[in-house]
Design a protein that fits this description.
The protein is an alpha+beta fold. It is built from 14 helices and 15 strands. It has three domains: about 230 residues, no CATH class; about 210 residues, no CATH class; about 80 residues, no CATH class.
């Protein structure tokens, strides 16, 4: 067999154009397919890297037309954990944005306050140190904190000596006790918190709680033999009992349909927004793989067809069937190995760039979240793509050439001279053209859509507008200091050379929907479908003039002389 490989390598080296073309097609096609499918797999298909993900369910409340909400009071979570018989390993976490001081620097980070059984229920082990346990729920002088792997690498350069070091979170001391493993985001997919601490730490900031209570997301695991419907009914009854205790207080919220949502793939904002696009991308990747198979098979068929006479002569000179089969398989093996090596290199180059090219993730408060999506090289996808290409090469390229080892020489030569393989080649060419047309049409429509989206009128003047954000909380400003700061900022910004006007908004331009609230006429109640369905953005006088936003009626400012008309020279 080794001699066949050496002989095949010499023949492929002589036919450089063919060899380079096949390897390049395989490398580009399989590499792009593997890298892009890694993104689809991470967002749509891959189960969470936790224990028994297939039995995980997320407790949610559905209030159309709003998205499913998983915000419950911690009292409800404790009641479920204590009384639910159909759910096990119930865990909770609360998302918080806090100012974290590590060393000499302070930054605003997304942290999760988690129940004591959070890591134990998920079956997660620490990269270094230890993770939180139920014993950590007691509020002490210094609370424990577990860092995420990306934050550990970014802020502490992966120093294992970080264990035992103290960090400050808005005036309170926390001790670093461990680091989560690489790629662990908890129950979320594309983003995760920078650090986690016990949920009892929320009591350190009583003014930031909702009427002194903690709101959290809840996930549990179905017990063996328990159906989703029976577990839902039990959990809903327990929640109703807790709700009766809260009746008549400000904690009483709007009703909605209570459900248990499958959580084996985790919670993903990007999946919700781009699921249709990702499915279209899967179809495009399948077409790309079919094009690769068709092109490689076509090139191999063309080369084998030109060698029919050579193979017939070799049979006439005494070559055995086994030797010819080994030789042709050796050529195919070398081509596939070259293509696979190139595909691995292409995929390795694309994977980090795909993650970097993803759009920023923001929550409903417009806070930008760290992107920690694990788009890794997928050997399953790579193996499937390579196997499909190899099968196409054998079926359409090598298999017809093996006819010479099963027939007499003269009929074979007559069939070759008469062009007996023309129909097969014709079918392959038609398939290639059809797939290429379909894929290029889809790509063209996508580019045209993006081009038209870029040309859409956003309702404001984009030319000459400069935006930036400031977080006064990092400086510890109170309400009066913040109001004075905003007044001085606008006044001084308007004095800058080249500035026409300036304004301030609580929500940045195209950065989130703002505070959700209900608006109704005086003396009238809001219908249930409209509850919390209006977004609010607090803006300063001059905001509309700065962005050139026109009003259909009324005035945009208490100052009647201020114009709301579009101003192409407006800047902020």
């Amino acid at each position: 067999m080794w001699r066949d490989v050496q002989f095949a390598a010499r023949l492929l080296a002589k036919d450089r154009l063919f060899t380079i073309a096949v390897i390049a097609i395989l490398a580009a096609g399989l590499g792009v397919n593997t890298a892009m499918f890694g993104l689809v797999d991470a967002l749509l298909l891959r189960p969470l890297p936790v224990r028994d993900p297939e039995r995980l369910v997320r407790l949610v409340t559905i209030r159309p037309p709003l998205a499913a909400s998983s915000e419950f009071f911690y009292e409800e979570y404790e009641a479920w954990r204590k009384n639910a018989t159909g759910l096990a390993d119930l865990l909770a976490w609360s998302e918080q944005d806090r100012f974290v001081r590590a060393g000499d620097s302070t930054e605003r980070l997304r942290i999760h306050l988690v129940s004591g059984n959070f890591f134990e229920a998920l079956g997660t082990r620490a990269a270094i140190g230890r993770l939180l346990t139920s014993a950590d729920e007691a509020l002490g002088a210094s609370q424990p904190a577990v860092l995420s792997y990306p934050y550990w690498q970014r802020r502490f350069q992966g120093d294992p000596g970080v264990l035992g070091r103290a960090i400050g979170i808005e005036g309170h001391s926390f001790t670093i006790v461990g680091v989560t493993p690489k790629g662990f985001n908890g129950l979320t997919v594309e983003t995760g918190p920078e650090l986690r601490s016990p949920v009892s730490a929320a009591k350190l900031w009583p003014k930031l709680l909702y009427e002194g209570r903690i709101e959290c997301s809840v996930v549990g695991r179905l017990k063996p033999g328990v159906s989703v419907e029976s577990a839902r009914a039990e959990a809903e009854a327990i929640r109703a009992a807790v709700g009766r205790e809260l009746a008549g207080t400000t904690l009483e919220g709007p009703t909605g349909r209570f459900e248990l949502e499958a959580a084996w793939r985790g919670v993903s904002r990007m999946r919700t927004q781009f699921s249709s696009v990702l499915r279209l991308l899967m179809g495009g990747l399948l077409l790309l793989l079919m094009m690769v198979c068709a092109n490689v098979a076509g090139l191999v068929m063309a080369r084998i067809s030109s060698r029919q006479t050579e193979l017939a002569v070799r049979v006439a000179l005494g070559a055995t069937r086994g030797s010819l089969v080994r030789h042709l398989l050796a050529e195919g093996l070398l081509l596939m190995l070259g293509g696979a090596a190139g595909a691995f290199a292409v995929s390795a180059l694309l994977v980090p760039r795909i993650t970097a090219a993803l759009p920023p993730i923001r929550d409903l408060t417009a806070t930008r979240l760290p992107l920690t999506l694990d788009v890794a090289f997928d050997w399953r996808v790579f193996g499937f793509s390579a196997a499909a290409s190899a099968a196409a090469m054998l079926l359409f390229g090598l298999a017809p050439s093996l006819a010479c080892v099963r027939r007499d020489i003269h009929p074979l030569l007559q069939e070759f001279r008469a062009g007996g393989g023309w129909r097969r080649r014709q079918l392959l060419v038609v398939t290639q053209v059809a797939l290429a047309t379909l894929l290029l049409s889809g790509a063209g429509l996508t580019l045209l859509t993006i081009q038209r989206l870029n040309r859409m009128d956003g309702g404001f003047t984009r030319e000459g507008v400069v935006t930036f954000s400031i977080d006064t909380g990092m400086a510890g400003y109170d309400e009066l200091q913040e109001r004075e700061f905003r007044r001085r900022l606008i006044a001084e910004a308007r004095q800058l050379p080249g500035t026409v006007s300036a304004g301030i908004a609580s929500r940045g331009l195209m950065r989130g929907t703002g505070l959700k609230m209900t608006i109704a006429r005086t003396g009238e109640g809001a219908p249930r479908p409209e509850f919390l369905n209006s977004s609010t953005n607090a803006v300063s006088p001059g905001y509309f003039a700065t962005l050139g936003i026109p009003l259909l009626a009324g005035s945009c400012s208490p100052t009647p002389t201020r114009s709301c008309a579009r101003n192409p020279r407006a800047a902020s």
